[in-house]
Amino acid sequence: DYFYKKERDDILRKSNVSGPKTFPIIGNALEMRNVTTENVFECSLERKRKYGKIHRLWSLNQLSVIVMDVKYIEGVLSSQQIIKKSSFYDILVDWLGRGLVTSSGKKWHTRRRIITPTFHFKILEQFIEIFDQQSTVLVKKMYNKADGKTPINIYPEVSLAALDIITETAMGVKVSAQENPNIEYVRALAHVCKIIGKRFITPIQRLNWLFRLTARRDYLKLHDNINILHKFTDEVIQKRRDALEKALRDGTYEKSSTVEDVATKKRMALLDVLLLSSVNGSPLSNEDIREEVVTFMFAGHDTTTSAMSFILYLISRYPLVQEKLIAEIQNVLGNDNNKSLTYNNLQELKYMECVIKEALRLYPPVASIGRQVTEDLVIEDLNIPAGANVSVPFYLVLRDPDYYDEPDIFKPERFDSAVGQKINPFAFTPFSAGPRNCIGKKFAMLEMKSTVSKMLRHFELLPLGPQVRTASHIITLSVTGVHLGLKPREW
Ligand code: HEM
């Protein structure tokens, strides 16, 4: 253990990378013993102050190199050599299998190629109607609470709306979570997210056998609930497969149809596009498809919930930004707040895009990402030994004063290309960048624009309730909830 660590520390030292004093066996466990979900960002900032924008940490015998300098972030994210995810992602495998988020190597390459057309703009365009319908349900529910004086924790409300959206777009089924938050599928998903979130921050639960041993009840509960989710998804896949095969038999679909052709004829769920795809002539099995569908459910639910909640919160706290947004919405959509939005309308909401980007900068839903270096890696003058994890803490990069003027201030105008400062693209990566960037980025932008503009058309957002206090729970959330007030808007 001593020599293993020394050898790697020596390599890093030559690249001027240091870190806390390393102890045999435990590594830097003492340094990390007080890190919690709530103080993780402050602890990382403190380490950045002490050891610089690139430093290393030993978690027992696992080396992590933390990279916050854009010069090297570009090298990490753009590299084709390090597309393997770090070992932390293994916690997700019982649930997601080896879908796009957790797979690597040839499997990831093949799947990424197959799945890319799934997010074709023709497919996304037909989802606008779903975004609109589900945000209408959200708005209807909110009218009951919109008295202009009661603080509302918007997070759980947005979470149910985002769940309805992702279930219908990914699987083509309506679970109506907003109307029935207690149905089995919704409850099972909440349990799974909670237990996995806890595992991420509890080092002793990271390894499967230790988790089974030290948290038996959670282990059993996790697996029972994963079974419920998988059973539900399997049944949906089988039904859609049967329907598709029937359609192919009676000629409603032609085998040679492109995604674009089919999407224009009939609304397709992401799952249908996967059913139509084939790898070297052989279609994806139900199990392959399940891996990807549950991955969409995971990657597309909490992320958009977190983002939309913080966006609404920030707008409620910045009345001038709200006024500008309303002016833009009126300009693009007129005064009829029930008018349905089109793809083109959403493209025209340019200031809204700046607001969303600025909210993602201050509260990135995915606060950090990790890769595993499988062979010695050289990025410019930085040498990283094989076996190390590399992590990029977006949360800190996005608030780094070297990359942003007044980094803690909410200033959407900084993203206006006409007046804003020039931002290094690798200092703004809430959707990551390079080969493993977010495949759902455009989907997410449309969903956020659609839902946020719907809320704004119906309500004035008021600065009520406590300030947010961020914490990292796989996803960035607020331990105080995300509160605001709502008052029906008069046009
Ligand atoms: C605001 C919303 C979202 C944010 C901030 C976000 C952010 C990210 C980030 C940072 C990654 C890279 C993760 C890593 O390297 O570990 C990622 C990957 C991914 N995202 Fe998103 N995401 C969002 C919404 C979505 C949506 C709506 C979907 C699907 C419908 C989606 C599907 C995926 C998938 C499948 C990957 C893995 C891609 C790969 O490794 O090839 N995301 N996302």
TrEMBL record:
Q: Name one GO molecular function term.
A: monooxygenase activity
The protein's location, in the record's own words, is: Endoplasmic reticulum membrane; Microsome membrane
What superkingdom heads the lineage?
Answer: Eukaryota
* GO CC term (a single one): endoplasmic reticulum membrane
Co-factor(s): heme
- For binding heme, which residues are annotated in this chain's numbering? C438
Spell out the protein name for this chain: Cytochrome P450
